[in-house]
Amino acid sequence: MNKRIEELSTTVDSLRTEMLALADVESPTDEQATRSETIVAEYDEAVSSLASARALEEKAAAVRTAAADPANRESGFGGAPEVMFKRSPFEGADSGTVKRMEASEVASRALTAIESATGYSSDWQERATRLIENSAEVHVTTPTEVARHALLTGSPAYHRAFLKVLQYPMDFHSMLEPEEAAAFRAALSTTAANGGYAIPFLLDPTVILSNTGAANPFRQISRIETGVSNKWNGISSAGVTAEWKTENGTAADASPTLAQPSVTAYLADAFVAASFEVLEDTALANSLPALFADAKDRLEDAAFATGTGSGQPKGIVTAVTAVTASRVSPTTGGTFTTASRADVDAVIEGVPPRFRSKSSWIANYSTYGIVRRMDQNGGSSFWANLGANQPNELLGRPQYEAYSMASTITTGSNILLAGDFSQFLIFDRIGSTMEYIPNTFDTTSGRPLGQRGWFYNWRVGSDALVPGAFRVLKL
Fold it and tell me: pTM here?
């Protein structure tokens, strides 16, 4: 192992151990509190340096391997130095050739494209990288499709072409450079909707949630899966039962009962219309991806919390409250006050032990306000504020604000939920599209309104794979 990598690995392990130890301290000293605030930054910096060192080592190894291949050497120059040229990951990446590539090559090219992309935040690039790497670990065929989508819509040429489509939707074809036109034609073949334009991979709200600080915590803590079909299918089991067996006794049949949970991706959309004057006099078109991302975030927050599962994703509250055993009744029906500390305890205590250690809380901010006022003595064992951009902890488990959780204290309200969100799955059907509508018409007269529009659509689904991994306080 490279000495630098070995040293950084040791540093990361040491900082991780120290950070976990500090997090377990119930009443930290001033020195420990100060250290808690600084160690996170040191840990992040060490992890980043380690990732960079490993990437450099991998590239160096690839260069050495290529240099050893006689096909990569120029002949006839005696002892002349060998010259290596770094190829663009998008070279020759049209829809036909990419489809015929090996999955490993497509994924490698896509990761290189993400790493070399400029003008994007490191957070976006990290999420895009993790999306491809994680799906490669879980699925066999999906990585090819996800990476293929990234490769065809992630090139700088396609990005430039897409911006010209937004700025000049009527005559952009005459403005495309040859490279941009080729990238645009290749990407259109991945779009099912006629007239729709696939949003560039690193701008696609379907791929990456840009705002990690929004009051929509579900994409931060839930299990995220991606694919190119309309449904995610999995396998679940209640587990295998072990036994104590007597000598020469017959072993009991402990074969598990398997189930196949599925999550359907539903179609969602947003439409923006603007007058000819607004589109001509402003840069509204350039802002559309960000505006649509915000609309998507707000729509999904409501669906992931309380969606019905009919024509829209099923929310975690909907899924959990449908199971009687997962509902916790309050001490006093229809009320939740500063005297309801026992009800908070009952929620987390009701989560099965196998899920409790990985549990998180979600509730509306107003509910957390009541919970905070329960802690009269400021005891960190009940409500802890770790700082350093870390979520607060309630009874030792992180808590997140969910705007769409019920805030009204009344009979029947589901106001506080805890559980293991790795058992709540969000399924993204990769690839959102934006379609230009050159003119809109009055629904009564049928005459043009002098407005143009952009129609954005994506597909997403969600559901609790194991509702028993959660408990909700239902007043």
Answer: 0.64
